[in-house]
Write a structure and sequence with these properties.
The structure is a single chain. The chain has about 450 residues and is α+β, with helices and mostly antiparallel strands. It has 14 helices and 13 strands. It has helices at about 10-25, 30-65, 70-110, 110-115, 140-150, 190-210, 235-245, 285-290, 300-305, 305-315, 325-335, 370-375, 385-410, 415, and strands spanning about 155-160, 170, 180, 210-215, 220, 250-255, 260-265, 280-285, 320-325, 340-345, 350-355, 365-370, 425. Strands 6-7-9-8 form a four-stranded antiparallel β-sheet. A four-stranded antiparallel β-sheet has the order 12-11-10-13. β10 and β11 (about 350-355) form a beta hairpin. About 35% of the residues are buried. It has two domains: about 5-220, no CATH class; about 270-450, no CATH class.
């Protein structure tokens, strides 16, 4: 009977290699060896998936033949069920192996820059993954180029061994931005190749200049770095995991408004304590892991420090959860002089305005579900978010004053600066079910809301 147990030794092996690389990012021999190991594991698992699909097809055909008695049919049905379980596990492991590949990229490159490698250049939909690695045309050339880059003392990774890097074939990891390279083993061109190269060119231009026109469905996109350092509580979650090792359950509160849970004994799940109040959001981190929806966030293969605990999380032996108190977060915004309102919207989570500002004239900031979910999936601080948004609204106000001066000097017309109507939002209704997914629609609008 197959389970995640058959992958345990390999998970522990690549976890150990990733930890060693983390301590010496200049060990390019280890960087190459880790990628070679992941390629081997991905290809072996892909072959396993093919074999299990064939077994399932044979068992289904055998059941439909009608040549078996009741007892024999029951045995075949049980075998088919087990094969389906094994197939689901193997398919999930393809995602898991690439989470270790993501770990490589996130060791070298800024996490906010890497998110741009996940989305299509034409719109904000997730770019389709390249597909199977085993038997891929042109792989030998990609591997040769990767080795040549590493031999020159430049870190790089094969995009196909990651979940996040969807542009190019080899990605140079010099930073702070990724530099994807498209490798073509043939001079033949077609519409698909032209689209890939066009999308890659647009991405390169955006990363190089920090702005773009007609990029991802938006008229104008500008990237601005917030001079606010993130605060991570990953150590608190790892401590929680360690405490649950023997106790079966543990919880920790690294700051007011945030609580982490680790459940190792299912019978102790009823010890989850949400505390007073109804404005709570709870995310079970096992869900995005199981649904292969962790991208583009900092990978759990780096966040969970113990290799054994990482295996238990992957196999579902432990459940990790993060509880957020929305009332505390709103108060943290108020302490800085801002009104924050949770909204009911497929893309946005919170609308922020300076307290007492005219909604029709003053700038506002909207926090996307993707950014908000970093609090859960990356174990980030609550206090960091109000600090970041305070800087952002200050930036918008400065931009607004500069635009007013340009208008006064007749350098630009007001209508040329308008990018669209100011959106309206419906307040989120409380109380509500506490489970929070952080998911948004495939089409993600720009973070910036136009200033009226």
């Amino acid at each position: 009977m197959r389970s995640y147990g058959q992958y345990r030794d390999s998970i522990l092996e690549v976890a150990s290699m990733l930890r060693r690389l983390e301590t010496d990012l200049g060990d390019y021999e280890l960087l190459l060896d880790l990628q070679r190991t992941l390629i081997r594991l991905i290809c072996a698992t892909e072959r396993q998936v093919v074999g299990l699909k064939q077994q399932r097809a044979v068992l289904k055909a055998s059941r439909r033949s009608g040549h078996h008695g009741k007892a024999e049919s029951a045995v075949i049905k049980a075998q088919a069920t087990q094969v389906s379980i094994d197939l689901g596990t193997a398919q999930h492991m393809l995602f898991i192996w690439r989470c270790f590949g993501d770990g490589i990229a996130f060791l070298y490159i800024n996490k906010y820059a890497l998110k741009h490698m996940l989305y299509d250049s034409a719109d904000y939909s997730v770019k389709q993954h390249a597909g199977a690695l085993h038997g891929k045309d042109g792989f030998r050339l990609e591997w040769r180029i990767l080795r040549e880059v590493l031999q020159r003392g430049v870190p790089a990774v094969l995009c196909d061994i990651t979940n996040t890097l969807r542009h190019g074939d080899v990605c140079v990891l010099v930073g702070p931005d990724p530099y994807p390279i498209e490798v073509k083993s043939s001079a033949n061109r077609n519409a698909r190749v032209d689209r890939q190269l066009d999308g890659l060119t647009k991405l390169h231009d955006f990363l190089a200049t920090d702005e773009a026109v007609n990029f991802r469905g938006l008229k104008h996109v500008k990237r601005v770095e917030a001079p606010v350092s993130t605060v991570s509580h990953r150590a608190a979650m790892n401590s929680c995991i360690e405490q649950a090792w023997n106790a079966g359950f543990a919880q920790a509160s690294p700051e007011e408004g945030l609580t982490y849970f680790c459940i190792r004994d299912p019978e102790l799940a009823d010890k989850l304590d949400f505390g007073p109040g109804v404005r709570k959001l709870l995310m079970l981190l096992n869900e995005p892991k199981t649904e292969c929806a962790w991208m583009p966030y900092f990978p759990f293969t780096l966040s969970i420090r113990s290799a054994e605990a990482l295996y238990e999380f992957i196999s579902g032996k432990i459940v990790l959860a993060v509880l957020l108190d929305a009332t505390t977060l709103v108060r943290l915004f108020a302490d800085r002089g801002f009104d924050a309102q949770f909204v009911d919207d497929p893309h946005w989570e919170i609308v922020v305005r300076r307290h007492g500002a005219d909604p029709a004239a003053a700038p506002m900031s909207v926090i996307s579900k993707q950014l908000f979910a970093r609090i859960f999936l990356e174990f980030e601080s609550l206090s960091w978010l109000p600090e970041r948004e305070a800087w952002f609204i200050d930036h918008l106000e400065q931009e607004g004053h500069a635009q007013d001066e340009r208008i006064a000097r007749d350098e630009v017309r007001p209508e040329d600066l308008m990018t669209g109507p100011v959106p309206t939002f419906r307040p989120r209704k409380w109380p509500m079910p506490p489970l929070y997914s952080g998911q948004q629609s495939d089409q993600q609008p720009s973070r910036d809301v136009p200033r009226p």
